[in-house]
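dumping this here before i forget
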Amino acid sequence: MAPAEAPYQINRIDTPAGGSLGVTAAPFIRSGTAAVVDLAWRADRLGYDSFWIAEVTGIEAFSVLGAASRVASGVGLGTGVLAMQVRTPPLLAMAAASLQALAPDREVLLGVGVSSPVVACDWHGADYPAKPLAQMREFIALLRECLSGTAVTFAGDYYQVRKFRLGVELGDRQPKIVLGALGEGMLRLAGAEADGVLLNYLPASHVPWCVEQVRRGGNATIYANIHVGVGNRAAAAPQARYDLFSYAVVDAYACSFTRAGFGDAVRAIRAAHLAGDRDGALAAVPEEMVDAIDVVGDEALVRDTVSAYRRVGVDVPVIVPLTWGMAGQDALEPTLQAAVAPPAPATHGSRRD
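structure:
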């Protein structure tokens, strides 16, 4: 835990050669602000380059990133991702610019996406776009104009703004727009219009296809959430199955899992879920899917998994620390340390104990 008497002082370890690395607080967004800020402190101490906060119904991203910026002075600050329906582009520009002003020498990574009907509509009372791709294209265009600091009058199909001017002065560094994307159209849009794309819940084998779609649009930086944990694989498996089941019943993720080669599993999971058979749906999540996406094992396996994603085209792995295979905080520190370490020579077999 960050020392209470000196929360801003960190003995930072340099990131090892091998590229930038981020970590997300996504697994802990219902654990409270203190746990998330502590994760930022740990990540900064270990030399991580960026710290990301997802947003659903738990903590609010920008207020907690602001708190994290005070105890983790070396990391970039990212949202990963925000539902575009919940904030207007001008409001999102104001929030991102405020965060950038708090951390003027660091990257602010403004991750946005279309989310899901459950999150956007049921939980937040917002509309789900009839044409997600078209609305996201317009959203990014308006957001970028709002971040420019110039007077903005915008008349689009989805957004109309008159004479908005951002009231937060930015220096040479401005927030970057990172688009959370799964499908072909959204990936190409990310390449064409965003500064980066954030991939999620995919095996390393599916990364090249995603990169190909992004590159057809442009040269956006490839970020990817990588779900790894140091621990006992057998102990973690039940939670991993539930995790993958909960995403397989979401249409966009079902399509992504199918493209990644898990179509038979997705159909079985969804059929059991539709029939009200929760146990059957969980049992339909195959071992191969667990081991490809929610990877739990020893330190070497975590290091090798991060390296594998880099080799197939991920510019910045973003670690999603899985603590299912060990007890509480005992799982977090070994995972963070293993992921940031350079891969060891291939003289041993990694274990999925």
